[in-house]
Amino acid sequence: MFKDQIDVLLVEDNKSDAKLTIRTLEKYNMANNLVHVIDGAQALDFIFARGEFEGRNMANKPKLILLDIKMPKVSGLEVLDILKSDERTKSIPVVMITSSKEEKDIVDSHKLGVNSYVVKPVVFADFSKTIGDLASYWLVINNTPH
Amino acid sequence: MTKTKKSDELIIATKELAVQNVEKKKRAAELLIANKELVYQTKEKGKRAAELIIADKELVYQTKEKDKRAAELAIANIELNYQNEEKEKRAAELIIANKELLFQNKEKERRAAELIIANKELLFQNKEKERRAAELNVANKELAFQNKEKERRAAELIIANKELVFQNKEKERKAAELIIANKELAFQNKEKEKRAAELIIANEELIYQNTEKEKRAAELIIANTELKKAEHLIVELNIGLEQKIIERTAQLEAANKELESFSYSVSHDLRAPLRSINGFTQILMEDHLENVNEDAKMVMEEIIAGSKKMSELIDNLLEFSRVGKQQVTMENVEVQNLVVSIINELRQEDPSRRISITLNRLHNIKGDKNMLAQVFINLMSNAFKYTGKKENAKVSIGSYIQDRHCVYYVKDNGAGFDMRYYDKLFGVFQRLHSTSEFEGTGVGLAIIQKIVLKHSGKVWAEGSVDHGASFYISLPND
Hints:
The complex is a heterodimer.
Chain A: E1 8-11, H1 15-27, E2 34-37, H2 40-47, E3 64-67, H3 76-85, E4 94-98, H4 103-111, E5 116-119, H5 124-141
Parallel strand pairs in A: 1-2, 1-3, 3-4, 4-5
Chain B: H1 2-287, H2 294-325, E1 331-333, H3 335-349, E2 355-359, E3 365-367, H4 369-386, E4 393-402, E5 405-412, H5 444-454, E6 458-463, E7 469-476
Helix pairs in contact in B: 1-2, 2-5, 3-4, 4-5
């Protein structure tokens, strides 16, 4: 059903933002092993291999999770909390990518142990560069344990 | 006959042969011996030949050794030759040095002779000095004796003096004390007479006041009961007020939360569609260039520019509302340092910009450091921006104290503004210049005004078109 290696898990409810992000990553050739889910509940189901993703090999952890904050059902902060509290998923790098510049969101995310907090630029040139730099850093330059 | 001759001959011959055979056998034996001798000698020669070969090799080897040594000796010879030349050079130098030394020695001998003559002269002078020293010694002892006499008398006089001085001071003290004591007594006498008179008046006063107090006591009792009634009323009113305060605070908090979630919405939800518009239009331009003509490109650039502008407007609006919500944290702010670092950053952003800044004294003030920083950043950026088209851009900053307020001013000689539209100057998103003249969204001055009002201060400005503008903020200086 899914390829063995999952590079990026994109958790984004806004279809346009998801398209822009995936398109940018494709341009940088980093979207080959990308999975896109549309809310927090689906994200958790995917990571813990349950619900519609039962049967997936849970040991295949994504190299990077791009997480939006405001999403229906389960919010980004709730997902972050669960991921960083569980021994099995604690070490997966989570980058919050969100429109919100609110100090409260930044503070809460860091309290829960987010690896990075990035505000989505409105201007596409900046957006594209930000996503490119981000993916390049977390997938190529940074080393994550396997 | 012949046969006997022949047989005689034969016998002789045979004897001859026999003798010859014996001779041959002897010679054979001798030859054998000689052979053995030859074999032995041949072996000896072989040994010697072998020895000679070894000796030969030895000689060859030694010859090579001798050749090597000969070569080394040749090199050593060259070295010795070279060193000999060096020694001859040094010998020549030493000869020159020797001649020099000889000459110097002669000079020294001349000087030695001169010194000997000088010495004899000194000896004679020394003897003269010793004679005079002896005479002086005698004179000195006489003087020393006389000095001791004088010192004895001086010491006696000093002791006598101190005694007199001490006695004098004692007398003066006693005299002064007597005078003070006298004045004191005279003063006290007058005081007693005054108090006696006052006491008589006071007594009459007290009698009068007592009657008055009795009257007032009666009035106070009436007033007290009135007060108690009023107190009850106040307590009731207070309870009512507190209720109203609680209600209104709850309302304000609710309104604030609404505003906060409104801002949050604006920041989050409005930005997402903007990102779509900007993003997909950009993608159209980048990825579908072949299908797009010049007119379509222009249209898309307008869309992209419009979405960028909207994003800026949203950011500025959010900033403005955030400033409104913030509470002021008072601390001592060193305005001089603040403004200097702001100017440095502005210069760094555009190093090629030539602008002359006159920094006069800036007083310290009590206020919220971050908010005041925002105010000065906005004032300075405006000054930089609106002098952008002037050849000789000049900005001057300073402060002065007036009526318990500290007034800060920023004056520039830039584009200025028309005083007819002064009312709009501090309005949100209100601009007095077009975006093509100067970029901006018109929220900088509104933010300054909000912050200054939060500090119970005032902000005002003066300007004239093309002749610059001056902005003033006054903050309470307690």
